Write a sequence for this structure.
């Protein structure tokens, strides 16, 4: 009788350990990517909510001023704390994003529209669509938000 392990048993054991480590490493990599994506989505939702709150404030300051911006274009919002956040009219470009550490660059586009196409649409309602998007590698991710602002004063 032979005490110890044969070369075949050692090779099988090393193979099983290697496959197990490979599975653990790949699961860890997927988990890290998913965690990073979840963190980015959360940041994008916060950016979207920030824009919606800012637009509510703009509505309260001057509903007529906000109404005058309906249907003109998409607005690229870079900083709602800026003195003139309306200055970036148009689609976002590569220089108009908000930088966030380790998250990449986020872009916020706002579209203001009325609820109907007829000339009799209710001018007391503004529909706001916010799209926050960012790019990770070759993939573009986005979060959208929407609300209705009404003339309540």
């Amino acid at each position: 009788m032979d005490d110890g392990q044969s070369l075949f048993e050692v090779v099988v054991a090393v193979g099983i350990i290697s496959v197990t480590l490979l599975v653990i490493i790949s699961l860890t990599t997927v988990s890290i990517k998913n965690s990073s994506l979840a963190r980015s989505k959360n940041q994008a939702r916060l950016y979207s909510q920030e824009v919606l709150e800012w637009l509510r404030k703009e509505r309260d300051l001057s509903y007529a001023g906000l109404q005058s911006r309906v249907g003109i274009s998409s607005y690229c919002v870079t900083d709602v704390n800026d003195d003139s956040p309306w200055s970036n009219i148009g689609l976002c470009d590569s220089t108009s994003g908000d930088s966030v550490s380790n998250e990449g660059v986020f872009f916020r586009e706002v579209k203001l529209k009325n609820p109907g196409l007829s000339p009799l649409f209710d001018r007391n309602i503004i529909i706001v669509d916010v799209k926050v998007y960012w790019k990770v590698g070759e993939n573009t991710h986005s979060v959208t938000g929407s609300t209705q602002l009404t003339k309540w004063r």
